[in-house]
């Protein structure tokens, strides 16, 4: 039986409302699991820059036990809250959104990886930039000396499979381990991925890594991304160096005082 136009339009409208409602309910119901999955994935990538994450590892437990986090500005000052009083939390900083702001207005998360004694073992910073076709990003872990690379984890949105997309390969990322971002005279030189691929990473010095065949533009994007973010964080790095120096000097002063007191006690005992 042929239905009237009004019936068809009404049926379509009701069906649209019902399906739209179901989709909305599904989106709301899945939002929390999706957020948890994204959070877990991010934590895994950050931790994998400093340690081997095995299948079945309790990433959230490791995170709570081993990671301290903070947020700094371009001057290296710690930012605890925004002007409106909102607390600033490192995990909640969207580095992609911050990337769109002028550098002087950005917030920069810092993740401190702690050893079993509760001391800082290494520093992990997020990096973000432009590849050949779209955005690239990652996490870079620096040893406590703030000079030596401990590990990197890169990712991308649209680099060419088998070429620029190889920045996600463990073999490519491992090339950065042990490289230096400062020269022997303290100049920030970052790390450069060279053009083309020799196949023998050992031929390069402390500041260069082997390239990726056919992916020069992606490699240039990685080079630019690393240099810029090391510069962004350089002021914060200097505050750590200053704090370390002050701690050492304070420790030396305490040792001198203790030695003087011990010497005085010994002299009094001998009189």
Secondary-structure blueprint:
Elements: H1 5-48, H2 59-66, E1 67-72, H3 95-99, E2 108-114, E3 120-130, E4 135-143, E5 149-156, H4 170-173, E6 192-193, E7 208-209, H5 216-270
Parallel strand pairs: 6-7
Antiparallel strand pairs: 1-2, 2-3, 3-4, 4-5
In short:
This protein is an alpha+beta fold and 271 residues long. The protein has helices spanning 5-48, 59-66, 95-99, 170-173, 216-270; strands at residues 67-72, 108-114, 120-130, 135-143, 149-156, 192-193, 208-209.
Task: Looking at this protein, list some descriptive labels.
two-stranded parallel sheet; 7 strands; 5 helices; five-stranded antiparallel beta sheet; 43% helix; alpha+beta
> Oligomeric state of the chains?
single chain
Mean pLDDT level: 86
Helix content: 40-55%
Number of helices: 5
Q: First CA to last CA: what distance?
A: 122 Å
Record field, number of beta strands: 7
Low-confidence stretches: 251-258
Number of domains: 2
User: Main β-sheet: number of strands, strand sense, barrel status?
Assistant: 5 strands, antiparallel
Order of helices and strands: HHEHEEEEHEEH
Strand order of the largest sheet: 1-2-3-4-5
> What is the alpha-carbon Rg in Å?
26 Å
Shape: globular
What does this structure look like?
The protein has 271 residues and is α+β, with helices and mostly antiparallel strands. It folds into 2 domains: 1-48; 65-257, no CATH class. Helix content is 43%, strand content 17%. It is built from 5 helices and 7 strands. It has helices at residues 5-48, 59-66, 95-99, 170-173, 216-270; strands at 67-72, 108-114, 120-130, 135-143, 149-156, 192-193, 208-209. The strands form 2 sheets. Strands 1-2-3-4-5 form a 5-stranded antiparallel sheet, sandwiched between helices. It has a two-stranded parallel ribbon with strand order 6-7. It is globular. It starts with a helix and ends with a helix. Mean pLDDT is 86; it is low at 251-258.
């Amino acid at each position: 039986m042929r239905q009237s136009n009004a019936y068809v339009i009404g049926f379509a409208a009701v069906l649209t409302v019902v399906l739209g409602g179901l989709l909305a309910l599904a989106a709301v119901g899945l939002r929390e699991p999706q957020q948890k999955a994204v959070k877990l994935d991010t934590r895994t990538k950050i931790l994998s820059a400093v340690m081997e994450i095995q299948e079945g590892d309790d990433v959230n437990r490791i995170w709570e036990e081993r990671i301290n986090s903070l947020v700094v500005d371009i001057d290296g000052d710690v930012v605890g809250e925004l002007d409106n009083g909102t607390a600033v939390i490192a995990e909640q900083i969207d580095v992609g959104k911050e990337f769109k702001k002028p550098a002087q207005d950005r917030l920069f998360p810092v993740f401190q990886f702690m050893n079993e004694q509760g001391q800082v073992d290494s520093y992990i910073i997020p990096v973000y930039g432009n590849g050949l076709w779209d955005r690239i990003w990652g996490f870079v872990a620096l040893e406590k000396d703030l000079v030596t690379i401990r590990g990197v984890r890169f990712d991308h949105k649209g680099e060419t499979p088998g070429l620029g997309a190889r920045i996600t390969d463990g073999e490519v990322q491992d090339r950065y381990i042990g490289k230096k971002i400062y020269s022997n005279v303290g100049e920030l030189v970052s790390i450069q991925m060279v053009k083309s691929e020799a196949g023998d990473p050992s031929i390069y010095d402390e500041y260069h890594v082997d390239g990726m065949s056919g992916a020069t533009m992606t490699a240039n994007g990685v080079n630019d991304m690393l240099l810029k973010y090391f510069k962004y964080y350089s002021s914060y790095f200097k505050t750590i160096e200053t704090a370390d120096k002050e701690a050492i000097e304070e420790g030396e002063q305490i040792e001198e005082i203790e030695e003087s007191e011990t010497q005085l006690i010994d002299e009094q005992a001998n009189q």
